[in-house]
Amino acid sequence: MKLFVTDLEGVEHEVDAMLNWTVMEIIRDGDLPMRAECGGSCACATCHVYVAKEWVNRLPEVQDEERDTLEGGFEVEPNSRLSCQLIMTAELDGLKVTLTQDSAG
Amino acid sequence: MTTDAISTDVIIIGAGPVGLFAVFELGLNDMKCHLVDILDKVGGQCAELYPEKPIYDIPGLPIVTGQGLTDALMQQIEPFNPVFHLNQMAESLTKTPDGKWRLTTDAGTIIEATVVVIAAGGGSFVPKKPPIKGIEEYEAKSVFYSVRRMETFRDRNILIAGGGDSALDWTLNLQPLAHKLTLVHRRDEFRAAPDSVNKMRELVAAGKVHLHIGQISELHGAGGQIEGVTLKPDGGDPYKIECDTLMPFYGLTMKLGPVANFGINLHQNLIPVDTEKFESDVPTIFAIGDINSYPGKLKLILSGFHEAALMAQQAFRYVHPDRKLRFQYTTSSSDLQNKLGVAAE
């Protein structure tokens, strides 16, 4: 499985995606910048990513906790997600995300 | 200045779980500690980021919250009377003429000790700065991330941004003395304490607080003096709001901070240590917990506890060079039990 990650310079990276890993962990494992200060407990917003438009509706819905925590992020858009809350499944093979100032700044 | 200095055995930078447990291990070996932390409370990330979240991998505690673990550690170290200097950032570290370390905080506290233990986790918690173009130009002049003195803000036209407790608390506290107070938040829902949200809603209904929903996209002003912001509502047209003071409250983030200038070897913002003593490349300066690095390092609280125990052995040799280090168990040693205040009569 693959995950496509666009960095702050606009360069797209293809990284190996592991089943049931979070997108945050996959980005980190791919040696791309990923602050994720709270370690994936949905307590900060430093794993904030933008999800490519065509994927937004194919992801599980944002839960209340994630919505609240996203408020600590900047330049939050309708396609903003916390990558620690996105779990890789076969259906998400090829998912495209873009890093933000929060996660990679 | 030296006359005002506090003298102790060990300075611990960071009062998170690992810094707190270090007090215990150092205390068993007759070393007194002063702790410095930038937060206004002890517990570090456990207390700041996930006080209510359960932790399942503390040995012997099948489930404990971040705050629960902090409270338990405070109880465990109470016999050793640690002294806390909270709400202060460890700013500089120098050597005194007699070879001790002198730590100065940004609040002016000066502590001198033989040993320094850096248990600073991911670094200092500092306010998140919004990535709005040119904001640096206004910082500390008309853009503020914290409030030192409320009087500074009397009769100002204040714009507060954010939806958490800090944003709401300062909205309620500053509204009575502000000339005008505007609260800006991304959506019309607030995660702050419900009581604060209700009070804010009442002030909005009474026309005393102006509430706008949207994100700040641009700042206007000159020479460090802000004159207004452009607000972008979700799906609407941007518009300008006038203000002379902007206060963004978007929570905290971690930065290594002045520790980087202490003269210790760093690698990727971590402090390399040996795995026998957890000492940095500078003798008598140790690093334990998430801030250190060594082959096989795991950023777990339990690893930090182990590191604290081993660090304390070497710290003893520095603090009590004339004494022989004695390894004892709390279960069987009446000496240790005396220190813990639990010795049988």
- Can you count the helices of chain A? 4
Helical percent range of chain B?
10-25%
* Secondary-structure element series of chain B: EEHEHEEHEEEEEEEHEHEEEEEEEEEHH
Q: Which blocks of ≥5 consecutive residues of chain A have pLDDT under 50?
A: none
Low-confidence stretches of chain B: none
Total discrete domains of chain A: 1
- Please report the total strand number of chain B as a whole number: 22
CATH homologous superfamily label of the largest domain in chain B = FAD/NAD(P)-binding domain
Quickly give the structural class of chain A. alpha+beta
CATH topology of chain A: Ubiquitin-like (UB roll)
The biggest sheet of chain B, with number of strands, parallel, antiparallel or mixed sense and barrel status, is: 5 strands, parallel
Q: Proportion of β residues of chain A?
A: 15-25%
Q: Which strands sit side by side, in order, in the main sheet of chain B?
A: 6-3-2-10-21
What do we call the CATH topology of the largest domain in chain B? FAD/NAD(P)-binding domain
Number of domains of chain B: 2
Secondary-structure topology with pairs:
The complex is a heterodimer of chains A (105) and B (345).
Chain A: E1 2-6, E2 12-16, H1 23-29, E3 48-51, H2 53-56, H3 64-70, E4 80-82, E5 95-99, H4 101-104
Parallel strand pairs in A: 1-5
Antiparallel strand pairs in A: 1-2, 3-4, 3-5
Chain B: E1 6-7, E2 10-13, H1 17-28, E3 33-36, H2 44-48, E4 54-55, E5 64-65, H3 66-77, E6 83-85, E7 90-95, E8 101-105, E9 110-113, E10 115-118, E11 124-127, E12 157-161, H4 165-174, E13 180-185, H5 194-205, E14 210-213, E15 215-222, E16 225-232, E17 239-242, E18 245-248, E19 252-255, E20 271-272, E21 285-287, E22 292-293, H6 301-319, H7 334-340
Parallel strand pairs in B: 1-9, 2-3, 2-10, 3-6, 10-21, 12-13, 12-18, 13-14, 20-22
Antiparallel strand pairs in B: 4-5, 7-8, 8-9, 11-19, 15-16, 16-17
Helix pairs in contact in B: 1-3, 1-6, 4-5
